[in-house]
Specification:
Layout: H1 3-10, E1 12-22, E2 32-38, E3 61-64, H2 65-78, E4 88-92, H3 100-112, E5 116-121, H4 126-130, E6 138-142, H5 146-149, H6 154-164, E7 168-175, H7 181-194, E8 200-204, H8 213-224, E9 230-232, H9 236-240
Parallel strand pairs: 2-4, 4-5, 5-6, 6-7, 7-8, 8-9
Antiparallel strand pairs: 1-2, 1-3
Helix pairs in contact: 2-3, 6-7, 7-8
The structure holds iron/sulfur cluster (SF4).
Iron/sulfur cluster binds at residues 41, 43-45, 48, 50, 53-54, 93-95, 122.
Amino acid sequence: MGSEELKTTALKAPVCEVFFSYQGEGLYAGLAQIFVRFAGCNIKCGYCDTAYSLKVSNKAQYYTVQSLLKKIKQISSKNKNNFYKKTSVSLTGGEPLIYADFLAALLPGLKKEKFEVYLETNGTIPENLKKTIDFCDIISMDFKFASECGKSFWSEHKRFLEISAKKEVCVKCVITNKTLLSEVKKSAEIIKSVSKNIPVILQPSIDKSVPHIKNLYIFRSEMKKMLPFVYVMPQMHKIMNYK
Ligand code: SF4
C-alpha cells in the first residue's frame, strides 16, 4: 500500500444516515438521489430541520472512504431503475465541507463509478470547497442570514460563490418571519457581482416561522430587479412528508 493510499484508508467521517429518496429542494426537486448526511455543523440556524445532524452523537456511524463507497454502491444498485442517466449522490448534513479531506478522498471514487456529485452546503467554508470543487457537478449553496443564524457570512459567501461559479451552482435563501429586506438585497448584490445568471431559490419556512406572503412577494420583487432567475419554492419533502 502506498502512503497516499494508507492516508485515505485512515480517514473517517461521522455520518448520520445514508438513504435513497427524492430531492425536495430547489432546482432539482424530484431528482432521485442517494443522500449522505454527515454529522456536525459549523454554524447554528434557528430554523434547522436536521437538529439530529448538528452534533456528532453516538448515533452517527464513522465510515471510512471505502466503507462509504461500498454503502453508496449497494444503495445505487438496489435502486438502479430509479435514477436518470447517472446515479446522483447528494452530500448533505450538517455541513459536509467540515470533512473536506475525507471528501477529497471519497469524491474521486464516486466519479470513477460515474456518479453525479451534488453538494448541499451552507457556503461558509470556501477554503474547504477548494479541496473538493473539481469533483463536484452541482453545488447548492445557502446564503445564511444573521436574523436566523446569529451572524452574517457575506465575505465567505462571496468567496464561496466565486469558487463555485466554475461549476453549476444555485443559491438558496431560507426565508422566515425574521428575514430582513436588507439581507435579501445584500445577497442579490453579492450574487450579481459574481454572475447575474446564478439562479436563486427563496425557500419560505413552512414551520412555526412562516413568513408573511406579502414579504415574500417584496423580497422576490427586489431580487428580480438585480437577478433574472429568482424562484419561490418550499421544501417539497416536508409537504409530502417523506425523508
Ligand atoms: S447550516 Fe444547515 S445543518 Fe447547519 S445549522 Fe444551518 S440548517 Fe442546520
